[in-house]
Amino acid sequence: QVQLVESGGGLVQAGGSLRLSCAASRSISSINRMGWYRQAPGQQRELVAVITSGGTTNYADSMKGRFTITSDNVKNTVYLQMSSLKPEDTAVYYCYAQFQFRDYWGQGTQVTVSS
């Protein structure tokens, strides 16, 4: 099993930056994929970015160039650096892990971008 704990959400003005962290309960080098999804009110949960255990990254088109996903195998933590934030980035951001053919989710962290 994998437990995921997110942190780093908050309120920021448009154009600002935030860094989200997701700490895993086991070595992330053993986890196939980790990443971030988000869900805005009344919207479906959508992919933000993922990173594989081999370091390959993938981003949703609207996040490319603004968001960066990285991992720290020593701290067993995945980060999402968000820059040039827009009001439409407002959502609950969820950490995700795929481990041994099962999906795991964190509790979510709120990101609010004011205009």
Question: Outline of this structure?
Answer:
By secondary structure, the chain is an all-beta fold.
Folded structure, characterized:
With 115 residues, the protein is mostly beta strands. Helices cover 0% and strands 55% of the residues. It has strands at 4-7, 10-13, 18-24, 33-39, 46-52, 57-59, 67-72, 77-82, 91-99, 102-105, 109-114. The strands form two sheets. Strands 2, 4, 5, 6, 9, 10 and 11 form a seven-stranded mixed sheet that branches. Strands 1-3-8-7 form a four-stranded antiparallel sheet, with no helix packed on it. β7 (67-72) and β8 (77-82) form a beta hairpin. The protein is globular and about 40 Å long. The chain starts with a strand and ends with a strand.
Main attributes?
mainly beta; seven-stranded mixed beta sheet; globular
List the helices and strands and how they pair.
Blueprint: E1 4-7, E2 10-13, E3 18-24, E4 33-39, E5 46-52, E6 57-59, E7 67-72, E8 77-82, E9 91-99, E10 102-105, E11 109-114
Parallel strand pairs: 2-11
Antiparallel strand pairs: 1-3, 3-8, 4-5, 4-9, 5-6, 7-8, 9-10, 9-11
What Rg, in angstroms, do the CA atoms define?
A: 13 Å
Structural class: mainly beta
Q: Summarize the main sheet.
A: 7 strands, mixed
**Count of helices?**
0
Average pLDDT reading: 96
Task: Return residue spans where pLDDT drops below 50 for at least 5 consecutive residues.
Answer: none
Share in helix? under 10%
Order of helices and strands: EEEEEEEEEEE
Query: What gross morphology would you assign?
Result: globular
Distance between the termini: 40 Å
Strand content: over 45%
> Count of DSSP E strands?
11
